[in-house]
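Section handout, structural biology tutorial.
Before the tutorial, make sure you can parse a SMILES string by hand: atoms, branches in parentheses, ring closures as digits. In the record below the ligand is flavin-adenine dinucleotide, and the chain has 410 residues. In the tutorial you will relate the predicted structure tokens back to the input. Do not try to memorize them.
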Amino acid sequence: MTDAIETEVAILGAGPVGATLAAALAARGVPCVILDAQPLPPMELQGFDGRAYAIALASQRLLAEAGVWERLPTTPCPIQEIKVADGRVGEAPSALDLDFRAAEVAEEPFGWMVEARALRVALNARLPELPGVRVFAPMTAEVARDEAGATLTLRDGTRIRARLAVGAEGRNSPLRQAAGIGTARHDYGQIGLVGAFAHERPHRNRALELFLPAGPFAQLPLTDIAEFGESRLPHASAFVWTESRGVAQRLLAMEHAAFARELRRRLGDWLGEIEPIGRRWSYPLTAMHATRYVAPRMALVGDAAHGMHPIAGQGLNIGFRDVAALARLVGEAHAAGGDVGAPALLRAYQAERRPDALLMIGATHALERLFGNDIGLLRLARRLGIAAVDRIGPLKRAFARQAMGLHAAG
Ligand SMILES: Cc1cc2nc3c(=O)[nH]c(=O)nc-3n(C[C@H](O)[C@H](O)[C@H](O)COP(=O)(O)OP(=O)(O)OC[C@H]3O[C@@H](n4cnc5c(N)ncnc54)[C@H](O)[C@@H]3O)c2cc1C
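Predicted structure of the complex:
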């Protein structure tokens, strides 16, 4: 048997959360190993695929500190204004709306729209240059844990010994399952449609969250089309749109022109002519929460620990908050010459992160319940509620700061 590679932290999964954790640990001088079941594709930027993340201010700070933000190959689009309104297909959004302006809360934007492929490219470019980080991909591992640490046996026979194993393999985390950690789940019975479109008039960095009877519909501003080179129309936005399974199947199968008409029936005319770009994606919508985030010598981060309705675009941002907390605790322990997988550290991580994620799962769930129906009285109540929040400055600012992730980042 060959000697094991000794490291402090072994991260399973190099998705956006796992890879950012490796970069954040490297920035604090903590040696780690990261592996992913998929190859981590080379640096060139493939064609625009239609997916983008809303990255909150606190997440942007984390990515900047980890040296990832400056490597994004396309320009992130700042979100300066968010308009929330109730609506119906084919009707203009209710005038009783809620208008958030970033300038009213902080000097910086609410967040940025970042193409999913750009974040992936920046992380994949960053990983091999991180000091103290070893990358294995495509690779899987068996993990055995004991009192002093975790031993990973890779598919090629390589053995790795770490004080802490981190599960960042997404929703179906094998590390979580092997540890016997249960999950609470809720199936919304709906499909999330995700994609992008070019449009004639500028979005003025405004995002629109529209509550339609079938579920929420969001338009999110993207950088101008010159960076995509895919349409004669100059501007671009992303959409996240929830529908029942049957309607979603029909929308996915539509020709571009018919799909553009459906988009415009929801958005109204404020963006002018519309042309879909990139692919259309669909995801079944479920919420999931792990009953524990830690077990001896292991911790869960990102979608391995929690998943939520995309109504508020917070899934990845909550994962980045896990990264910030774990990197800080592990970094401090390492700097003090302590044990980065000690039970007290893991308890502190769970105590900090689990209630925060639960709050966001609950909030997105409540929003979905409140806005996901078309009962007349409830519609009036939410229209009045939206208008009331718009007029109560401190409440509105509290909502906005929560969305920016600022309550956690300070
Ligand atoms: C419709 C929709 C829209 C969304 N929009 C937003 C948004 O606007 N903003 C936002 O913040 N979030 C959004 N989210 C949520 C976001 O996509 C997820 O929270 C995020 O992708 C989670 O990242 P992750 O790294 O934890 O997991 P994943 O992205 O699932 O990555 C897991 C990684 O682990 C690897 N892996 C899997 N199994 C193994 C194994 N056995 N061994 C090793 N590696 C393994 C995979 O190859 C992958 O690279 C949205 C989600 C949906 C469904």
